[in-house]
Amino acid sequence: MKTPISVDEKKDFIRWLLNTHQMKMREAMWVLNYIAGHDQIMKYVHFVDDLDGKNRGLVLSAHGVDNEPFRFFKGNLTTSDPEKAFHDIRLNWDENLYIMLHFKEALSSPEYALVREENSAQELKIGEDEKLLAEKFLDQMMSRFEQEALKQEIDQALDRRDKETFLKLSALLQEKTF
What domain of life is recorded for the organism (predicted)? Predict the structure, then answer.
């Protein structure tokens, strides 16, 4: 689990983003600057890769990517008007705001990785059957790995003409039930 992301880290990221990428809509830059200028809002800002299951979100895109330039939603209402988004953010500063960003090489950006959070609405739910299947698979892979490592040691003993080690490892390989 990742440690909580500080307000300062989020603010530094927004500054970095605005200095290195030009947003498709200049109003998006204004909204980001406003958010970064208010610590009380930044406490509730979360950068995510997916907005599924979120009640309030903002999608912003920089030049160089083929995504929508600006979208804000709250509940079932969606708008591409930055002024409406700004108004909601200003009035409801103490509500979680999830921001999904699109810019070149976003997923490989260490700056973005530092502030991105997992989408808790998409937690993986694994049943008992799946757990048992995964354990069985892991056990099989570990056995195969051990078997291959033992075979490699046997080969090395043969290369060294070490009969004693060869016989000992060969016996061990035969007694193990892989």
Answer: Bacteria
Rounded Cα distance, 70 and 84, in Å: 12
Domain with residue 100: its CATH number is 3.40.1530.30
Task: Give per-residue pLDDT as tens, 45-82.
Answer: 999 998 988 999 999 999 999 999 999 999 999 999 99
Domain count, the chain: 2
Give domain status of residue 147, yes or no.
yes
Write the pLDDT tens digit of every residue in 60-70. Answer: 999 999 999 99
| Distance from C-alpha of 11 to C-alpha of 17, rounded to nearest angstrom | 10
Residue 24's φ and ψ, nearest 5 degrees, are: -65, -30
Asked whether the beta carbons of 45 and 6 are under 8 A apart, the reply is no
Q: Can you give the residue range of the structural domain that contains 141?
A: 128-175
Q: Are residues 117 and 134 in the same domain?
A: no
Q: Encoding tokens for residue 109?
A: 């950006």
